[in-house]
Amino acid sequence: MWRRYAPHNMMILVTYRHVVVTLLLWPFAYYHEKKLRPKMTWMLFLEIFVLSLLGVSLTLNMYFASLKYTSPTFVTSVVNTIASITFVIAIVLRMEIVDVKSARGLAKIAGTVVSFAGVTTMTLYKGAAFASPWNAPIHIQGSNAVHDSWLKGSFLAVASCLCWSIWYILQASSVKRYPAELSLTAWMATIGGIQSVAFTLFLQHKKEDWLIGFGLKFWCIIYSGITCSGFTVFAQLWCTEKKGPVFVTMFNPLSTIMVAILAYFIFGENLYVGSIIGGVVVIAGLYMLLWGKEKNQEYNASGEEQVADLDCEKQQAKITGASSAKNGS
After folding, report:
1. Alpha-carbon distances, residue 89 vs 45, 92, 238 (angstroms)
2. pTM for the whole thing?
3. Angle at 268 between CA 69 and CA 257, to 5 degrees
4. DSSP for residue 190
């Protein structure tokens, strides 16, 4: 549906979806997190401003622009690289530790390399197309057309993934300073919406383009605002606080499978050999990374148990020694 409109029209739709989130979340955030919300400072506001830019306005506009030039299956496959990019950034910032001498550490590294290999395949190799064998119930204008700007769309998709990865990394520190996840989501939607308004008004001045009516566009805005920009962002913030940014991004491959099935059966979207091969490679690499992450958590948990047992033994030894000294005196 989004690809039927020019890039500036998609910016308008991105703006409206965050207006929906702002109006929906602020009443709940205000009353539910009244005691949990910390005092807003200029430094905290600047941090949320950057979060909104990277995770809301800039990223989403690049994402939808890439969708116009490529296909839904391709874009969701490229989005799977967010986990690998986030993992690399986390290593650089020492938020993630990799032991290259262990199988779990090698699995993390190999999974990252394999994922990037899959993305390279999807970007540089398109291959033959598999057309849907039946009439799709919903037709998207130009959905199966050959896009002349496929490479341009690929770079936009990768750039949006890079911004998203940085956004996930920043979330891990932001939720510690601003632990009210619902209010933080509302703040990002508000500031991101304002950023989108400023950017869109600079490029689009026609009043009629801002009139969307109550048709398909209206319900797409409502749905994407509530589920994608509202519930999903709130759930990601909560999971990032509990498990960290790398863990959260590991579940992105599920969207590739769902989108490929829906696009093929409902919208009649072509499936390309390059996207299929690259998508399989990306998912394989990401779950190698997931296996290494799980084993690393098990190793850390066992290490903590051993340290706790040693502390108990030392404490017991001190008590026993003190009792012996007292009896001897």
Report:
1. 24, 5, 20
2. 0.68
3. 80
4. H
